[in-house]
Amino acid sequence: MTTTKFGIIKQFILNKIESGQWPQHAKVPSENELAEQFTVSRMTARRALQELTEQGVLVRSQGAGTFVATFKSQSSLLEIKNIAEEVQSRGHEYQAKQLVLESISVDEEIAILLACQPGDKVFYSEVLHLENNRPIQLEQRYVSSALVPNYLAQDFNQITPHEFLSSVAPLTEATHEIEAVLASESVCQQLNIDHHQPCLRVRRRTWARQGVVSVAILTSPGDKYRLGGHIVIND
Question: Which part of the chain is the HTH gntR-type domain (predicted)?
Fold first, then answer.
């Protein structure tokens, strides 16, 4: 069970969104309303709202309040591609190395993102993607065991997690968080880079019709990866 007070508030909000009770653009209770409802300080309520805003779940508007974010317009910023096809489209050789594939108990942060409870069992994979035998991306992915029960039966040396998930739980929505980071020592070793080399990290949360399917953390050397997108704005 979620034990921190702000974690309980975050899970409450996510449950309302995932169930459809709070659709896109719905106004979320204020800090004062949440503080009163959950018998906590206004600071605790503010922290819950701020963290969900940073995760792209909510949007805060000065003077107007806090609203459920528009997930589909967020996902339009980046086209989600199968990295194998992306590499092959450049005429290069693609290869994948499955490093980890197991069932794990999730911590509070991942539980909130996957709309489950801390300590619940989910599936976890690590796959190293290579282009012309050079590592270009480490993919760490948490997958809902309820929505994708046969995930552990796959061979991700032969098929990418994205390709498999697209076939069994077609993507309907996604959010992205992008940041420049210095990766941990273990990630640097897997990517075969110096620990001072900057990396690009994308945290991607994907939905199917049944709910949140996966949370993927994609880390690439900064000199081997770039992001692009095409945005369509409707009047």
Answer: 3-71
